[in-house]
Amino acid sequence: MKQLLTVEKLNVIYGHGKDSVHAVKDVTFNIKSGEIFGLVGESGCGKSSLGKAIVRLTDPSSGKMVFNGDNVSLLKGKALKDYRQEVQMVFQDPYGSLNPRMKVGNAIVDVLEVHRIGKNKAERRERVSELFDSVGLNREWAWRYPHEFSGGQRQRICIARALALKPDLLVADEPVSALDVSVQAEILQLLGKLRTDRGLAFLFVSHDLAVVRNICDRVAVMYNGEIVEMGDVADVIDHPQHEYTRKLLSAVPSF
């Protein structure tokens, strides 16, 4: 597998001076094409800040990000817009991610229009239907409002919207934590299928080591803004080297 994303000594700092918060500290890692790379840690450790920096929803304070061979750390304007076609994000709250007053299919049509994908509205609506098929939803449901769907269905819609631009990398920020356990399993299966069918790579952000073990190839453990341990998911979970990783594992309930 070729190298898709390389992150080198990335820092994210909010605010200035004595009131500043150093959310991400000198983080270095890479993600390969078609890989599901896990990022795990407690709430507030900097995981989401790192994910948003990769999508460039947050500007990194320093460091370097190379995507498909291009330095994307300082992109602006059209170049940044083009980059966001290749890297998309799925958020934790599927309801908060959707406009309650807009039919879900139109939310996807808007994305296609902004990026000038499709020749006309009919072609874009057909693309929406195809996207609904790909995430296991009835294509006729695309013209309903968000409140008409369950939490799991709404997350599938958010995944469909993220897929609309045919990205190479999806940053999934706690994508199943707001869902029931049975629905979590369905969404994880969907992500695995998308990886297989489309060759998609994922940065899978989670606080749940059990979920990470189920889906990820490699994992990085984040604590207080830093990566303290990284490796193949089985090695890290079965033979943790860092005390913080052992604490995370001890908090996982066993049945």
From TrEMBL:
Organism: Pontiella sulfatireligans
Classification via Gene3D superfamilies: P-loop containing nucleotide triphosphate hydrolases
Gene: oppF
Protein's name in the database: Oligopeptide transport ATP-binding protein OppF
Any one biological process term the GO annotation gives: transmembrane transport
Residues in the signal sequence: none
Entries under Pfam families matching the protein: ABC_tran
PANTHER family in the cross-refs: D,D-DIPEPTIDE TRANSPORT ATP-BINDING PROTEIN DDPF-RELATED, TRANSPORT ATP-BINDING PROTEIN
Record family assignment: Belongs to the ABC transporter superfamily.
Residue stretches making up the ABC transporter domain: 7-249
InterPro entries: AAA+_ATPase (IPR003593), ABC_transp_ATP-bind (IPR050319), ABC_transporter-like_ATP-bd (IPR003439), ABC_transporter-like_CS (IPR017871), P-loop_NTPase (IPR027417)
CDD domains for the chain: ABC_NikE_OppD_transporters (cd03257)
MF-aspect GO terms: ATP binding; ATP hydrolysis activity
Keyword terms: ATP-binding, Nucleotide-binding, Transport
